[in-house]
Amino acid sequence: GFMTRHERKIFDDLKSPHLKYWVPFVWFGNLASKARNEGRIRDSVDLQTLMNEMNKFRSWCSLLFGYDWVGIPLVYTQVVTLAVYTFFFACLIGRQFLDTDQGYQGHDLDLYIPIFTLLQFFFYAGWLKV
User: Does the pLDDT value for residue 86 go beyond 70?
Assistant: First the structure.
């Protein structure tokens, strides 16, 4: 809905090894200059302000393209993986129940499988894989 069918055909026919986010900005600049020459934009200061704002938006799109182009370094995923597995191991040790033979008050239940710790690990490992 942002382009006419004719503009879309021109856009699709343009060959570029990279993303073509910049093409509509060039079109906008040409149309704005044409509008200034035809008198639809009355002042050059207005045209300059309009072009400055559009160039600012174009640079934001370029920055976004840079974030998409450069992947997350492998060391970050390794650190997060190590943190998840270390946290799980610490939880396995730290969340064990007390020995019921010692007679601690209020600690009669002794589970052999830490269900909630396993669920928490599955959630964290699942998020890590995503």
Answer: yes
Pairwise CA distance, residues 9 & 30, whole Å: 18
For 1-109, where are the alpha helices, taking DSSP H only? 5-13, 23-38, 44-69, 74-94
Of 118, 85, 121, 113, residue with least CA distance to 97: 113
Place of tokens 């986010």: 21
34-67, pLDDT tens digit by residue? 999 999 999 999 999 999 999 999 999 888 888 7
* pLDDT tens figures, 13-34: 999 888 888 888 999 999 999 9
The most distant pair of C-alpha atoms in the chain lies apart, rounded to whole Å, by 93
Taking a C-beta distance cutoff of 8 angstroms, is the pair 97, 75 a contact? Answer: no
Tell me if 32 sits within 8 A of 57, measured CB to CB.
Answer: no
